[in-house]
Amino acid sequence: IILRSINAGDAGTSGMLVFSSGSSSSGNSGALIVGTGAATVGRGGMMLLSVGSGTSGAGGSLQGSAGRSTVNTGGAVSLVSGEGTATSSGMISIQSLNAGLDGSSGMLVFSSGSSSSGNSGALELGTGTATDGRSGMILLNVGSGTSGAGGSLQGYAGRSTVNTGGAISVASGEGTVTSSGMIILRSINSGDAGTSGMLVFSSGSTSSGNS
Question: What pLDDT sits at residue 132?
Answer without folding.
Answer: 86
